[in-house]
Design a protein that fits this description.
1 helix; about 80% helix
Length: about 45
Amino acid sequence: MDTLVNIIFSLYGLGILVMLALLVFFIVKRVKTKKTENFEKRDN
């Protein structure tokens, strides 16, 4: 029973780490594209 609980918590923690890594990746990607964007390229 203890092993099952440990596996579930490990998967939950791994999921949180993956989500945080994806969040950081997409923020960095957006910042890089924002730097190269000029005024004419914007959609307004």
